[in-house]
Structure to design on (299 residues):
């Protein structure tokens, strides 16, 4: 998400006109599970009641964890065909012996357990503005943050522990005292809480199972690329590729680099990574575009 924020800032500050496109992209697991799982249990070891939340927040978090377990089971089963079962509620004992008993009881070989669960709003800064009448106004900015811990088990015991944190800008509000300002309410903002929760768990699952992520890429649409911009506005990505392709031999090296980069984005969108990388490398040989360097991080 931090990289996408950098892209947004780049789009905002750069004099060259650009448009942002987004599309799904398949992910490759970072780690392999050997031997391969035959059946997976999804568990919760985090005791919500012990946190002493207000009733409505405790109820929401219980529902969110149950939804997380169910979402994980569906994701694993749909992408791998491996049977996965969500055991809703809380399994208070996180001992390897207890997990082993559950694995035996359900005929499973692996288990994933939620060990820590935090969904909150974090104040990131307070801007103070002096008004013309001499008074000061304060605007507080808040991120929404999901910090979860996961334990992975097999019949041999706990294999690894992972912490996944996702934090994104959410909103701002005028406050009388920025340092003491209360942030947004998680219960009221439950839709955003669920969204970042699912982003968190899918980021974790991507470490072990095939999945998808959404890529955000800027495309050059300024001077010389008007035809590319027009094609994008009508949703014709094939035409946008053709129009950018016409400029890859431009005499101006930067224009040619921008055209190669655009082509790389469009080939990536067509799920042709080898072709995308070829154009991306050609772009970087012509000019060190920040957009191309950022994209190359995925290759």
């Amino acid at each position: 998400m931090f990289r996408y924020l950098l892209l947004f800032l780049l789009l905002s500050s750069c004099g060259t006109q650009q448009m942002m496109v987004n599309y799904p992209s398949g992910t490759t697991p970072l780690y392999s599970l050997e031997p391969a799982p035959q059946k997976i249990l999804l568990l919760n070891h985090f005791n919500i009641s012990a946190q002493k939340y207000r009733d409505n927040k405790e109820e929401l978090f219980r529902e969110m964890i149950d939804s997380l377990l169910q979402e994980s089971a569906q994701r694993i089963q749909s992408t791998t065909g491996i049977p996965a079962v969500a055991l809703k509620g809380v399994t208070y004992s996180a001992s390897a012996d207890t997990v082993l008993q559950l694995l035996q009881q359900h005929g499973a070989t692996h288990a994933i357990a939620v060990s820590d669960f935090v969904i909150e709003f974090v104040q990131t800064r307070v801007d103070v503005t002096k008004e013309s009448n001499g008074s000061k106004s304060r605007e507080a900015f808040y991120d929404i943050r999901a910090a979860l811990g996961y334990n992975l088990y097999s019949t041999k015991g706990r294999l690894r522990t992972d912490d996944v944190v996702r934090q994104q800008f959410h909103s701002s509000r005028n406050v009388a005292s920025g340092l003491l300002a209360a942030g947004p309410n998680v219960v009221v903002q439950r839709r955003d809480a669920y969204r970042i929760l699912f982003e968190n768990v899918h980021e974790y699952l991507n470490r072990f199972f095939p999945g998808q992520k959404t890529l955000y890429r800027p495309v050059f649409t300024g001077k010389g690329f008007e035809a590319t911009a027009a094609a994008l506005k009508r949703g014709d990505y094939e035409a946008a590729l053709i129009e950018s392709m016409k400029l890859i031999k431009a005499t101006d090296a930067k224009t040619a680099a921008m055209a190669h980069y655009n082509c790389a984005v469009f080939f990536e969108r067509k799920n042709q990574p080898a072709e995308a990388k070829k154009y991306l490398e050609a772009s970087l040989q012509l000019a060190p575009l920040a957009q191309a360097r950022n994209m190359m991080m995925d290759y």
